[in-house]
Specification:
- With about 350 residues, the chain is an alpha/beta fold.
- It has three domains: about 190 residues, 3-Layer(aba) Sandwich (Rossmann fold); about 70 residues, Helicase, Ruva Protein, domain 3 (Orthogonal Bundle); about 60 residues, Arc Repressor Mutant, subunit A.
- About 45% of the residues lie in helices and about 10% in strands.
- It is built from 16 helices and nine strands.
- The strands form three sheets. Strands 2-3-6-1-7 form a five-stranded parallel sheet. Strands 4-5 form a two-stranded antiparallel ribbon. The protein has a two-stranded parallel sheet with strand order 8-9.
- Helix 2 packs across helix 3 and helix 13 crosses helix 14.
Length: about 350
């Protein structure tokens, strides 16, 4: 999908699915700082907090909805600290259960369990001198949280199957999209582990609450697509910008990155128009009215057909293919809904 070169300072010791920060680091020149994009007051507040905590050794819990870029914040903290030249090790805690928890976090010796044919360091020792990022910290089972707490308190790990302990110097950063304090009250998260980790809480607001960041991010993703394909840059039309700004982005920055990539690959010309965006974004814009002013079905149809015609510069056959309609059916709708194809063609030439 994108180049796979990864910053050597960010060592990953486990397989992961799609991750927004990993995607950005693939298309950067090796510096995550350049990928941290925004200009909203909320974004600037995050930067200020990062600068305040980066030079410290205290744990930080980064909170926010899925897709807001919590790992990017963790990377920024690491790269702004005196540990920047050492390993940044991200761990998906949702995948750690039972014996796998101890083995992957603390390592194991050969023969510790069936299938343990080689000894492993584990994430803690792999991150020694650097930063360990515990993503989805809330997903660690209650019965295993005590083992993590013990390592944090002692500053040492004992590999599974061994009696020898190893000192580790690791900065702990965590992330969650759940309310840990509520989990403490529900007794699904240990209070002692919570207090150990929650020295600083850095909340990343959702994208809908920092709309000033939407277009800079969109244009950044667009520029990276052009660089990846070695093509001249493409631009968003004003109507596409308006569409992006009016959408709520429930998937946050990750969803925006996906939408821009889709629009880029589906656009053959230079201008990216609204219909290149995912269907759910177009539909949301079409029906985004106060309840007392709901549009009629014909009004919604008219708006979508006009967008298709604008995207194709008034070419009805191409618009019909986009809409999944027969050309005769589209012609009948154009007449019924009083749509001026000639006006759309004239507008596209200007």
């Amino acid at each position: 999908m994108r180049p796979t070169g990864r910053n050597s300072n960010q060592q990953s010791t486990h397989g992961r699915g799609f991750d927004f920060s990993e995607t950005l680091s693939r298309i950067s020149d090796g510096t995550l700082n350049a990928d941290f994009i925004g200009k909203s007051p909320a974004f600037n507040s995050i930067l200020e907090t990062i600068q305040a905590v980066a030079a410290r050794k205290c744990p930080v819990i980064i909170t926010g909805e899925t897709g807001v870029g919590k790992e990017m914040v963790a990377c920024r903290i690491h790269n702004s600290s005196d540990r920047a030249g050492r390993a940044f090790v991200p761990v998906d805690c949702a995948t750690l259960t039972g014996q796998l928890f101890e083995s992957q976090l603390f390592g194991h010796v050969r023969g510790a369990f069936t299938g343990a044919v080689e000894k492993t360091l584990g994430f803690f020792r792999a991150a020694d001198g650097g930063t360990l990022f515990l993503d989805e910290i809330s997903e660690i089972p209650l019965e295993l949280q005590a083992k993590l707490l013990r390592v944090l308190q002692q500053g040492a790990v004992t590999p599974l199957g061994s009696t020898k302990s190893y000192r580790v110097n690791v900065r702990i950063l965590c992330a969650t999209n759940r309310g840990l304090w509520e989990m403490v009250k529900e007794q699904t998260f240990r209070s002692d582990l919570y207090y150990r980790l929650n020295v600083v809480n850095l909340e990343v607001p959702p994208l809908r609450q920092r709309r000033e960041d939407i277009l800079p991010l969109a244009e950044y993703f667009l520029a990276n697509q052009a660089a990846f394909y070695n093509e001249p840059p493409k631009v968003l039309t004003q109507s596409t910008k308006d569409l992006l700004l009016n959408y709520a982005w429930p998937g946050n920055v990750r969803q925006l990155a996906n939408a821009i990539e889709r629009a880029y690959v589906l656009t053959t010309g230079r201008h990216i128009r609204p219909l290149a965006m995912p269907f759910e974004i177009i539909v949301a814009d079409s029906v985004d009215y106060p309840r007392s002013e709901l549009p009629t079905l014909d009004e919604v149809k008219r708006k979508i057909i006009i967008q298709a015609l604008e995207c194709t510069r008034g070419h009805k056959l191409a618009a019909a293919k986009i809409l999944g309609l027969e050309r005769r059916r589209l012609n009948r709708l154009i007449g019924k809904l009083n749509i001026s194809v000639a006006g759309i063609k004239k507008k596209s030439r200007s």
